[in-house]
UniProtKB/TrEMBL annotation:
Keywords assigned by UniProt, alphabetized: ATP-binding, Ligase, Nucleotide-binding, One-carbon metabolism
GO BP terms, alphabetized: one-carbon metabolic process
Family matches, as Pfam families: FTHFS
InterPro entries referenced in this protein's UniProt entry, alphabetically: Formate_THF_ligase, P-loop_NTPase
Entry GO MF terms: ATP binding; formate-tetrahydrofolate ligase activity
Name of this chain's protein: Tetrahydrofolate synthase
């Protein structure tokens, strides 16, 4: 398993998939006000946007930085990604070719309240995260690429990114040890550097 690059990519990829499904569930089961309050909680009487939330606001064309100054319409626009479940591009991954996972149905537990959908598993090394890890030039470049990964389309046909889901930092933390190459040796004892899945 080398230094765990494939495991880290698998974890990051599947964390993003899990967050996307959780977000879809919460948007389907909560009204606008409570959803906004969960995303921007009031702590000791005040609340503020995180840097990743401020980036989302800028992408939406909202220049305000105080959560309490947003109109109800702006709060809804910020809080709801409105992911179109028929246009989700992000699959979970596993590090083997398991043909029975090529098409699956998720959300069958009673706790998911009937919100099932079909999805699939891909092979871990085919993850876009693995490609980003292989092609990234430095940490800032990798962070930028992770943030802009399109995981789905919203109901208006617009892109939904990892940054919209608030996942860029968490993905970067899971991948931090994968930035370094792995020192190995050939059968003849020659040192060789191995990096990433592809």
């Amino acid at each position: 398993h080398l230094t765990g690059d494939i495991h880290a990519v698998t974890a990051a990829n599947n964390l993003l998939a899990a967050q996307m499904d959780a977000r879809i569930f919460h948007e389907l089961t909560q009204k606008d006000g409570p959803l906004f309050d969960r995303l921007v909680p009031r702590i000791k009487g005040s609340r503020k946007f995180s840097p990743i939330q401020l980036r989302r606001l800028r992408r939406l064309g909202i220049e305000k930085t105080d959560p309490d100054s947003l109109t109800d319409e702006e709060k809804t626009k910020f809080a709801r990604l409105n992911i179109d479940t028929n246009n989700i591009f992000w699959n979970r991954v596993v590090d083997l070719n398991d043909r029975y996972l090529r098409k699956i149905t998720i959300g069958q537990s009673p706790t998911e309240k009937g919100f099932t959908r079909q999805t699939a598993f891909d092979i871990s090394v085919a993850s876009e995260i693995m490609a980003i890890l292989a092609l990234g030039t430095d940490v800032d470049d990798i962070k930028r690429r992770l943030a802009s990964m399109v995981v789905a389309l919203d109901k208006d046909g617009g892109p939904v990114t990892a940054d919209d889901l608030g996942m860029t930092g968490a993905l970067l933390v899971l991948l931090k040890d994968t930035f370094e190459p792995t020192l190995m040796q050939t059968l003849e004892g020659t040192p060789v550097l191995v990096h990433t899945g592809p």
